[in-house]
């Protein structure tokens, strides 16, 4: 097996997931925002909330369609790129995949009713469909994350030379750590989408401070953004504590911990060097890692050197991705605190220029943190596709010339990404006030 | 009945449903490409209206089939993914461009030229994808995919680039176009449009007949199992006889403009063709080296999969019924007399 084909296969899978993850997150979270504003509109009779809900529905339609097709690509790619993995372990992990299929099916059905059935069903039924979309979207993210938990911590079978024996799919479905990882992922979907939405409306409000529509839109996005940004560090900490116990080599890579030591420091930033075993440019907080990972300042933290070199993940990549995730997560939590403080004192959501700038700049951070976090768990599991059981190199397809599909899909995703952004920009542009009147205009061309 | 057999039926069933629903959506794309005459714009609008709310749902049958295959028969999934890597990748590109372009056309409101360009991508992909799907089916049933141990030894091209596979690809395209045209006669709100699709349905029906004939003739050399199954197995023979009856019935019903019943007959015809394929390759998943039993997951895993299938059916079927009830065509006064 030439190394390059393995790299292309990994790159194609990584690219497909990195692309899909954004649309999947939007498919989980936008329905919630859409239903919230729909419900607010019904309760207050305010036409702006109704219109916001319709705009969000259009955004959901576009993003969900791209998520559906890129998800189809992924379900095939599991086999197209990793036939040995699926051929041996498909039966072990087929259960959450099937349930994810059920949830996805339900989401698509009710999204169809919600998007196209506004005039065909009763208002109650319409709202119910929206709720079903939101619930099944969350369920589908939950089930598919269980698959990833299994890959990180395989259970529910006995490995043998001829494949898994004594298969127990229910045990495999709830592999150790499932509760932390699913909570972490679900929160990240809501957080990334709410921050992106808040960023967009903050951008408009900076240019048109009087735009009432966008003030209301912000008031729908901010609560979700703030709550998730504050919950996420708590859940993330639980998740990291579990990783520290269950996957010590991943934790060592995340933290750039080369030597096993008691009272290990927390390294902020820095670029681990696997040749020297040092992390230059890092700021050390004494005993920080031992406290964070094991709640004990003198706890022993296993270093990378305690593990065979050929089982190390790519240390520098994992460490940097982890720093990016924690850094962006902390920035978002801080902004959420400041915003909620303002809300508590002034009894209104903020609209000052400084905070609007902060929300605008934080708009992409949720997505950045989500992608970085996903890279941490995937890079951190290497060289295994199924940790401790099957190496990624042993799972890859024997099909040659994998550069061709990789570059093809790269071009396709680039094209789709650019198109979606342009379409969404035009959706937002349709709500811009005409001449600072505060009234939305430019609606004539939107059907 | 063993769990192998039940799950085998379930996989075949999802392929039938994918053909009846997802296939018809591809067919809609074909008629979008071939829209012509004075009601060209109306034809395209009708297709878009019919597909819009349901295409994502219809398309999920394929994913359900995939999941059942890799969870229930993992070895077969691995073999197919390797042997058919190239056509499946091309099929995926078709699926991506079809779905994305259809959605972009709906929401990209920059004017007619842009809409036409998205329409072309949508309809072009709708033509290519069914051919590739059919070619994969042709390769699976023809016995050209060879496996030794766990290794595919028949290469990455030869198995699916046979005349027989091409013929099955064309048959799939004609069948999907036929289904779509028949469904659209029922969806059309007024009679001129209905007549447009009636003509198309009958034309496509003839094309299905010719393509099926070519497939059968090529099967003698290209897919001996299909050929023998046709002659020897009484079960397969009954299936094929049923297909013929349904085909004649759907033609007669189209001829006499009983569109609602023509739709049922066409669906039965298409469903029996897919089942006929499944029956002719039973008990193989990949002819001639991978059987249902040989590729099967452990019985415990299969039983749990059946439970998941039951849960899924209980959740999805009522929701689907609701969806199709909400979007059933609203009959116009003039349609009442004909139905």
From TrEMBL, chain A:
It comes from the Bacteria. GO terms for molecular function: electron transfer activity; heme binding; metal ion binding; oxidoreductase activity, acting on diphenols and related substances as donors, oxygen as acceptor. This is Cytochrome BD ubiquinol oxidase subunit I. Keywords: Cell membrane, Electron transport, Heme, Iron, Membrane, Metal-binding, Transmembrane, Transmembrane helix, Transport. It is found in: Cell membrane. Pfam families: Cyt_bd_oxida_I (PF01654). Belongs to the cytochrome ubiquinol oxidase subunit 1 family. It is a multi-pass membrane protein.
Automatic annotation (TrEMBL), chain B:
One of its GO terms (cellular component) is cytochrome complex. It is found in: Cell membrane. Pfam families: Cyt_bd_oxida_II. It comes from the Bacteria. The chain crosses the membrane at residues 6-34, 46-70, 76-97, 118-144, 164-184, 204-223, 235-254, 261-280, 300-324. One of its GO terms (biological process) is aerobic electron transport chain. GO terms for molecular function: electron transfer activity; oxidoreductase activity, acting on diphenols and related substances as donors, oxygen as acceptor. Its main location: membrane. Keywords: Cell membrane, Membrane, Transmembrane, Transmembrane helix. It is a multi-pass membrane protein. Belongs to the cytochrome ubiquinol oxidase subunit 2 family. This is Cytochrome BD ubiquinol oxidase subunit II. It comes from Myxococcus xanthus.
């Amino acid at each position: 097996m030439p190394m390059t084909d393995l790299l292309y296969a990994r790159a194609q899978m990584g690219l497909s997931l990195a692309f899909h993850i954004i649309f999947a997150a939007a498919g989980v979270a936008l329905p919630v925002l859409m239903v919230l504003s729909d419900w607010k509109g019904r309760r207050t009779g305010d036409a702006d909330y109704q219109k916001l809900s319709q705009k969000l529905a259009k955004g959901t339609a576009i993003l969900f369609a791209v998520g559906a097709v890129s998800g189809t690509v992924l379900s095939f790619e599991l086999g197209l790129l990793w036939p040995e993995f699926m051929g041996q372990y498909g039966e072990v992990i087929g259960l959450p995949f099937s349930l994810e299929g059920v949830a996805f099916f339900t989401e698509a059905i009710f999204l169809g009713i919600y998007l196209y059935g506004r005039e065909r069903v009763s208002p109650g039924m319409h709202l119910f469909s929206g709720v079903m979309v939101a619930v099944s979207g969350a369920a589908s993210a939950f089930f598919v994350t269980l698959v990833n938990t299994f890959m990180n911590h395989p259970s529910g079978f006995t490995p043998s030379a001829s494949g898994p024996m004594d298969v127990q799919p229910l045990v495999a479905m709830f592999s150790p750590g499932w509760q932390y990882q699913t909570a972490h992922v679900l929160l990240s979907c809501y957080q990334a989408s709410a921050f992106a939405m808040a960023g967009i409306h903050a951008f408009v409000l900076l240019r048109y401070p009087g735009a009432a529509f966008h003030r209301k839109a912000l008031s729908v996005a901010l609560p979700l953004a703030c709550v998730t940004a504050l919950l996420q560090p708590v859940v993330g900490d639980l998740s990291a504590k579990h990783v520290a116990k269950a996957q010590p080599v991943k934790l060592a890579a995340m933290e750039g911990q080369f030597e096993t030591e008691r009272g290990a420091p927390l390294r902020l930033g820095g670029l681990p060097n696997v040749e020297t075993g040092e992390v230059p440019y890092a700021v050390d907080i004494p005993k920080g890692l031992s406290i964070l990972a094991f709640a004990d300042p003198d706890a022993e933290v296993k270093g990378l050197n305690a593990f065979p070199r050929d089982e190390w993940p790519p240390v520098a990549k994992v460490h940097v991705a982890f720093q990016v995730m924690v850094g962006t997560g902390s920035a978002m939590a801080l902004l959420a605190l400041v915003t909620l403080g303002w809300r508590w004192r002034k009894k209104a959501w903020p609209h000052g220029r400084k905070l609007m700038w902060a929300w605008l700049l934080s708009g992409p951070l949720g997505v950045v943190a989500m992608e970085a976090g996903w890279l941490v768990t995937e890079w951190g599991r290497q060289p295994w596709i199924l940790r401790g059981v099957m190496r990624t190199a042993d799972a890859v397809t024997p099909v040659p010339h994998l550069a061709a599909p990789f570059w093809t899909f790269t071009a396709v995703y680039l094209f789709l990404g650019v198109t979606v952004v342009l379409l969404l920009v035009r959706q937002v542009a349709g709500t811009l006030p005409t001449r600072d009147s505060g009234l939305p205009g430019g609606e004539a061309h939107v059907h | 009945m063993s769990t192998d057999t039940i799950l085998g039926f379930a996989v075949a069933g999802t392929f039938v449903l994918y053909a009846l629903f997802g296939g018809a959506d591809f067919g809609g794309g074909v008629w979008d490409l071939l829209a012509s005459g004075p009601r060209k714009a109306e034809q395209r609008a009708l297709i878009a209206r019919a597909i819009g709310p349901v295409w994502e749902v219809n398309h999920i049958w394929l994913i359900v089939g995939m999941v059942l295959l890799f969870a229930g028969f993992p070895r077969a999934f691995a073999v197919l993914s390797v042997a058919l890597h190239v056509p499946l990748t091309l099929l995926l590109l078709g699926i991506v461009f079809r779905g994305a372009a259809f959605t972009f056309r709906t929401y990209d409101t920059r004017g007619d030229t842009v809409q036409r360009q998205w329409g072309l991508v949508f309809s072009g992909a709708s033509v290519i994808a069914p051919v590739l799907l059919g070619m994969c089916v042709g390769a699976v049933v023809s016995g050209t995919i060879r496996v030794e141990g766990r290794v595919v030894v028949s290469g990455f091209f030869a198995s699916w680039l046979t005349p027989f596979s091409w013929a099955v690809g064309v048959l799939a395209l004609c069948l999907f176009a036929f289904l779509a045209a028949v469904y659209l006669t029922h969806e059309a709100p007024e009679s001129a449009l209905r007549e447009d699709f009636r003509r198309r349905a009958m034309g496509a029906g003839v094309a299905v007949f010719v393509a099926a004939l070519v497939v059968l003739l090529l099967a003698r050399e290209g897919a001996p199992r299909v050929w023998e199954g046709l002659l020897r197995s009484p079960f397969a023979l009954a299936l094929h006889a049923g297909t013929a009856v349904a085909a004649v019935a759907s033609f007669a019903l189209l001829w006499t403009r009983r569109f609602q019943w023509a739709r049922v007959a066409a669906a039965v015809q298409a469903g029996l063709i897919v089942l006929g394929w499944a029956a002719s390759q039973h008990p193989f998943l990949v002819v001639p080296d991978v059987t249902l039993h040989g590729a099967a997951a452990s019985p415990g895993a299969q039983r749990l999969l059946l439970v998941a299938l039951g849960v899924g059916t209980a959740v999805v079927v009522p929701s689907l019924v609701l969806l199709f009830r909400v979007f059933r065509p609203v009959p116009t006064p003039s349609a009442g007399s004909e139905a």
